[in-house]
Amino acid sequence: MAVCIKVLYMGKLIDTLLGRSIATTENDYMDLDLSAYEEAGSGSVAVYVKIASIGDLKESPRIKDEVYKGNIVVVDIQRLKMDKILYERILKDFKEVANDVNGDIIGLGEQRYVIVTPKGVKISRDKIGGAL
User: Fold this and answer.
1) Is-above-0.90 flag for pTM?
2) Rounded distance, CA 122 to CA 132, Å?
3) How far apart are CA 27 and CA 8, in angstroms?
4) What are the start-end ranges of the H helices in the chain?
5) Which of 44, 55, 70, 129 is the most exposed place for a label (fewest CB within 10 A)?
6) Spatial distance between the Cα atoms of 57 and 77, rounded to a whole number of angstroms
7) Total structural domains in the chain?
8) Residue 57 lies in a domain
9) 103 with 78, same domain?
10) What would the pLDDT profile of 10-62 be if each residue is shown by its tens digit?
11) Do 25 and 53 lie in a common domain?
């Protein structure tokens, strides 16, 4: 059974993630035929992309555990910005985790998000296409 879905073009998706709300139209989407991926998707998943939001130090261990398990974590750190000491401490913890697992870490969206990756996943600092 072939499944088609509409997917927002990457440029519009990045704009949305970075908080640049731009009106979307039908032309901003492309059809994606999932039939080619249905067979490949029947196996086990090796790496997940996890989404997290952090507001205090108690939430940090769960996020770090996900990176140690080999998952990529996108963390919304906006709530931390109210406490500069806590903000810097948690970012230091995330940097140490990335170094421990030989992964990577980068800030996105005017430092609203942090992406922490496990071993074998590096984040390119080169931008593709227009300005982000």
Assistant:
1) no
2) 19
3) 9
4) 10-17, 35-38, 60-68, 84-100
5) 44
6) 12
7) 2
8) yes
9) yes
10) 555 555 566 666 555 666 566 666 666 666 556 677 889 999 999 888 999 99
11) no
